[in-house]
Write a structure and sequence with these properties.
single chain; alpha+beta; Immunoglobulin-like; five-stranded mixed sheet; five-stranded antiparallel sheet; 14 strands; disordered N terminus
Length: 301
């Protein structure tokens, strides 16, 4: 029943989308060697889907579409006459679905007929928040697909990955959304990795630098490279000698009140992990070293 309802809801959307050219179309053509290939819209960036709340709940959209390459393309040749192009779904992220022109819901691998050499079709992509496979901590979903010519005139394409998000992250790595990637972003990425539910969806999205859908230590390494740092800093290690002791409290106090010392990163200075650098950080270090207080939060060893 649910599949039938979904089909009715999206039938008009799919039909109307197929009749118009969109900037997010993927151009379907062939290389000089006769292999099917995609051009047009860049697949390096995720496509942001719009929220829906009604018969279905989640985020959906009819882009990217598939359109035949026009003569004169600089990168691809037009499809051969008599082509019968299929889209083979290699894999789909849990929680993501595709609705084809026959109103069929695809949530796993399978094949969908795309059209002949004049093809132009838009399917509907859905991040289904009601699916048992939906993970609210996830920030990116993707489908891997290949193009296949049933007529046998063109070789099967390589595998392409198309990515979707339910919120736009304007600058990956800019977790605090201040318009630039700095050590302040490094300071907060650890709390996101340890407890993603404690932060906003945008922060999780911005922390997912490798575009695998989740913030992990792999993203921390990318951020370190972005900031030209060779290794993970030790939280509270204000003087950068990798040992947390009284000298770090002194370095922090010097930095705060005398301006004579600048910690390498905000992580080195923000001992208590509250995103602020103040007197409380020096007290935290001394409390840990001499009164048996809690160790600094990650990153700490």
């Amino acid at each position: 029943m649910r599949k039938g309802i979904l089909g009715c809801v999206f039938a008009l959307l799919i039909t109307s989308s197929a009749s118009a050219q969109h900037l997010t179309d993927m151009w379907v053509g062939q290389t000089e060697d006769g292999q099917l290939a995609l051009g047009g819209v860049s697949l390096d960036l995720p496509i942001v889907l719009a929220p829906v709340d009604g018969v279905i709940t989640g985020w959906s959209g009819a882009n990217p579409g598939f359109d035949n390459v026009q003569p004169g393309s600089e990168t691809l040749k037009p499809l051969a006459e008599g082509s019968l192009i299929w889209v083979d779904l290699v894999s789909i992220s849990p929680g993501l679905a595709m609705i084809d022109n026959d109103q069929q819901l695809h949530t796993h691998d399978g094949s969908v007929y795309c059209g002949d050499e004049h093809l132009h079709v838009h399917y509907t992509w859905l991040i289904d928040s009601t699916s048992s496979e939906f993970d609210s901590m996830q920030t990116l979903w993707s489908v891997e697909l290949r193009l296949r010519d049933e007529s046998g005139q063109q070789a099967t394409s390589k595998t392409y990955r198309v990515m979707f998000q339910n919120e736009e992250c304007t600058l990956p790595g800019d977790i605090d959304n201040d318009g630039e990637v700095t050590d302040m972003d490094l300071d907060v990425i650890y709390s996101i990795i340890i407890d993603p539910a404690s932060v906003t969806h945008y922060e999780r999205c911005a922390a997912d630098l490798n575009l695998d859908g989740f913030a992990t230590m792999a993203d921390e390494q990318i951020l370190l490279n972005e900031l030209d740092l060779e290794e993970t800093p030790v939280r509270g290690d204000a003087n950068g000698d990798t040992v947390l002791d009284m000298s770090d409290a002194v370095s922090l106090l010097t930095h705060l009140f005398l301006g004579g010392y600048e910690p390498a990163t905000r992580v080195h200075a923000n001992a208590n992990g509250d995103s602020l650098v103040d007197m409380a950080d020096a007290i935290y270090v001394m409390n840990y070293r001499f009164l048996g207080g809690s160790p600094p939060p990650a990153p700490f060893k």
